[in-house]
Write a structure and sequence with these properties.
By secondary structure, the chain is α+β, with helices and mostly antiparallel strands. It contains 4 helices and 10 strands; from the N terminus they run αββαββββαββαββ. The strands form 2 sheets. Strands 3, 4, 5, 6, 8, 9 and 10 form a 7-stranded antiparallel β-sheet that branches. A 3-stranded antiparallel β-sheet has the order 1-2-7.
């Protein structure tokens, strides 16, 4: 196998160029974010006798583009990622659990009603004629079990990371094979991190 190695100075130049590009582009990307970019709010942790629970909401989730998509009768999913890590005592965090849950909303223009499915919470889909009520169902996560308390150790430090992705981009049928391993989402929140000691 023939492996070409770059001179040491070339690697240094590439490294410094990379740092410059990151510092130059990051503020521009931040400013480019829409002020209505979705954010996670009211993030709270709680516990029952047996489980660690999480609560949070998504604000600015329904952009005009997403509302139009829903009103056109297109099934629209919201995906939520929640990960729990044990931190401290080591430079490498240990993943305790990782959860992906999804809620979907679909509008029936004939019946003029919204159907919201939350398989992680309710077995049967919820139906309403109120868009505001359907929006609340889609954007509010409550009583979600992150992990059993038996997975945690008293006095140890932990970290929960949360992110939401809103509406999957539908590709033409032929392209689905080309981009089979790639996930396309219209909008997503930043990662949110909560540190706590059990």
């Amino acid at each position: 196998m023939n492996i070409t190695r770059l001179p040491h100075k070339t690697w240094i130049c590439l490294f410094l160029t990379g740092i410059f590009l990151v510092q130059f582009l990051t503020p521009a990307l931040t400013l480019a974010k829409d002020k209505d970019h979705p954010v996670l709010t009211d993030i709270k942790l709680a516990n029952t006798r047996d489980d660690l629970l999480i609560y949070f909401e998504v604000e600015n989730a329904f952009s005009p583009k997403i509302i139009q998509r829903i009103e056109n009768g297109i099934l629209t999913p919201f995906l939520f990622h929640i990960s729990l890590y044990k931190t401290g005592g080591s430079w490498l965090d240990k993943k305790i659990t990782e959860i992906d849950i999804q809620s979907t909303i679909k509008y029936n223009s004939l019946k003029q009603e919204y159907t919201v499915s939350q398989p992680w919470k309710e077995k049967k889909p919820l139906v309403t004629e109120s868009f505001d009520e359907a929006r609340d169902w889609m954007t509010r996560i409550d009583n979600l079990v992150v992990a059993p308390l038996t997975d945690l150790v008293k006095g140890e430090k932990y970290q929960i990371r949360i992110k939401s992705q809103l509406t999957r981009v539908t590709l033409p049928f032929a392209l689905r094979y080309v981009f089979y391993f790639v996930s396309f989402w219209d909008v997503e929140t930043d990662w949110y991190v909560i540190n706590f000691t059990y």
